[in-house]
Amino acid sequence: MTRLRYALLALALSTAPTAFAQETAPRPNIAGDWDVTVQSPQGTNTVLVTLKQDGEKIEGLFKSPLGELPFTGTLVGNEMKFAFSFPVDGQPLLITMTGKVDGDAVTGKADFGGFAEGDWSAKRAQPAAAAATTTTPQTTTAETTTSPSTTTAPSTTTAGLGYGGKWDVVVRTPGGDFPATANFTDEGGKLSGTFGSQMGEVPVTGTVEGKSMKLTMVAQTPNGNMTVTLTGDLDGDSIVNGKADIEGMGQMEWSAKRIKP
Q1: Are strands 212-221 and 79-88 parallel, antiparallel or unpaired?
Q2: pLDDT digits (tens, 9 = 90+) for 140-187
Q3: Is 212 within 8 Å of 203 (Cβ atoms)?
């Protein structure tokens, strides 16, 4: 009996270092921006997600041209789990996502409120925003330098373009202002072009009646495609009184200013 006790004690001591090493293994660093691809019942969509990490606690934001969707979760070892609610037809749908972190990649499963499941994956995003902001001061300088000799040119060009051209767009969401860009072609009362942000571009089509416009686009979200209708009024080089009717989320405000060549 005594020998059995010593044998059990020796076995416990021999396995203790292994267990301790597992518990103190370094946790992956997931802080930063990630390109997340979700396969939902509505199709496959890729969105930008920003993650913050504090021990086992994680916080994140899904980012799209229509705003930001926050979530919280945990990271235990390399096992990640987080959840968020997404409005569908005016009702919240709880989406739970679990996955394993492997360096700069994540793979896992998504549960859509118990109604369906799908795969998801993520890879660490490459820093591209810095390059865009670097060029902004150069274009601003060029505009201020040439403005004295071209004061009357923008007004005649604007009158001919209508809504045509490139625009800096701001969408006012519950989570704050979200910047985007648009590129419109205005031909005989018909509008076409693109609307996008750091996540990419989506095509838009619409109509113009007088100074008022109406556009429709399909935005990509973590839960699938979402129809968005944009309305607004042309005021020189600005779009004012902008309203964005977002499927399942209600109405938000937006405005835009034309980017002069």
Answers
A1: unpaired
A2: 333 333 344 433 333 333 445 689 899 999 888 766 677 788 999 988
A3: no
CB contact set of 31 (below 8 Å; sequence gap of 6+): 51, 52, 53
One-letter amino acid of 132: A
Low-confidence residues of the chain, pLDDT below 70?
A: 1-25, 41-42, 64-67, 86-91, 128-161, 174-176, 197-200, 220-224, 248-249
Q: Which residue has the tokens 């205005």?
A: 186
Hey, what are 47's tokens? 């969105």
Q: What is the pTM of this model?
A: 0.47
* Strand 212-221 relative to strand 91-102, pairing: unpaired
The CA-to-CA distance between both ends of the chain, in Å, stands at 91
CA distance 259 to 165: 7
Residues 6+ apart with CB under 8 A from 28: 75, 78, 101, 103
